[in-house]
Specification:
two-stranded antiparallel sheet
Length: about 190
């Protein structure tokens, strides 16, 4: 798995493309949280569940169904709190893609048992054919080691740099829409 930092950065980059307006920073933070949440399944290892169990690491919480469920919950919470004024489908898509990016990045790593993208309907675990990201250790001790430095160097090149480019493109998109005369929401109920 990539580190929690890389997952959060990927979720934020997706937010820069899909979420604009005055509430964008809190929404980006929620997207970053969604991108990190699937790794809470590591608790299952401490509870004695086998790694390859559907509730084990990289199991159900890394699935597309989980991403859809979390996106639905987050969209409802954001709507109830009135944090955003854009369309609900676009907000849902943001939270879905932020959460699903976790499994996608994990499937690009060089270790583990793969990702159960279709759990609970299938226990089959998948890797992408291209696995350039060095897998991060699960322990804190392993992270602060020589291998941890190798992991961070790998993630800087394969996650952080591309995410920074996506983020910058996302920031440029609303400006371009304003220049071409399209409507961009700036406050709930107001447009520019």
């Amino acid at each position: 798995m990539p580190t929690v930092f890389s997952h959060a950065i990927a979720g934020t980059a997706i937010g820069a493309v899909l979420v604009a307006g005055p509430a964008r920073v809190p929404l980006w933070a929620l997207g970053a949280l969604c991108a990190v949440v699937p790794d809470l399944d590591v608790i299952s290892l401490y509870l004695g569940l086998p790694y390859d169990h559907v509730l084990g690491h990289r199991g159900l919480s890394h699935s597309l169904l989980f991403a859809a469920g979390l996106a639905s919950v987050m969209t409802a919470v954001v709507r109830r709190a009135r944090l955003a004024s854009g369309s609900s489908p676009r907000l849902w898509a943001f939270f879905f893609l932020a959460t699903a990016s976790h499994g996608l990045l994990d499937a690009m790593t060089s270790g583990g048992l793969g990702i159960a993208f279709f759990a609970p309907f299938s226990d089959t675990r998948y890797f992408l054919p291209w696995q350039p990201i060095v897998v991060s250790p699960l322990s804190i001790h392993g992270f602060f080691s020589r291998h941890g430095l190798v992991v961070m160097r790998s993630e800087l090149g394969w996650v952080w740099l591309p995410a920074a480019l996506v983020f910058l493109v996302g920031l440029a998109l609303p400006r371009r829409r304003r220049q071409t005369g399209a409507v961009v929401e700036t406050r709930p109920g107001r447009t520019s």
